[in-house]
Amino acid sequence: MPAQGDGKMKKTAWLLVQLTVLLLASVAWAVSYPPTAVEPNYLKDEDVMRSGVKLYLFHSGTQDVLGAIKPGQVLTGYREYPPDLSDTTKETGKVRVITTLGPYYFEAEVIEGFVRPGSIALKGAIGCLVTTRVKTK
């Protein structure tokens, strides 16, 4: 005579087999959609800074940055898209460094195109993060 636990063990084993088949089928028929070329609305709603706007650039404060970027130099602004949207960057504008503010910031001005908070301003391999616009008093 079979033990009572055998029926329960068979049901559990059968359930595990079904779940495994379901898991494998879901991975095999998964759908991946390519990123869209159009920016999503949450990126368009950010604070856009156009020509003439003064802003702050955050940097690491290392000698590499301070040696490479001086007041008066022009950096190229790039927009980095979220990884789920695209793996590319897009040049959006140019900024001119006005002055150094403490050990980690530059004050700059947009001279061409536009930048947004979170954009990257590059000069060669050296980069700064665009943070906020300079508040006028």
Comma- or semicolon-separated keywords:
137 residues; alpha+beta; six-stranded antiparallel beta barrel; 3 helices; 7 strands; elongated
How do you describe this structure in short?
This protein is α+β, with helices and mostly antiparallel strands. 26% of the residues lie in helices and 36% in strands.
Structural description of this entry:
The chain has 137 residues and is α+β, with helices and mostly antiparallel strands. It is 26% helix and 36% strand. The protein has helices spanning 4-28, 41-44, 63-68, and strands spanning 49-50, 54-58, 74-80, 89-101, 105-115, 120-123, 126-133. Strands 2-5-4-3-6-7 form a six-stranded antiparallel barrel. The mean pLDDT is 81.
The fraction of residues assigned to DSSP E strands is 35-45%
Question: Given the helix and strand composition, which structural class is it?
Answer: alpha+beta
The helix content is 25-40%
CA-based shape: elongated
Query: Strand order, biggest sheet?
Result: 2-5-4-3-6-7
Number of helices: 3
Low-confidence stretches: none
Largest sheet report? 6 strands, antiparallel, barrel
The rounded distance between the terminal residues' Cα atoms is 91 Å
- What is the typical, i.e. mean, pLDDT? 81
The quaternary state of the protein chains shown equals single chain
Report Rg.
27 Å
Helices and strands, in N-to-C order? HHEEHEEEEE
Please report the total strand number as a whole number.
Answer: 7
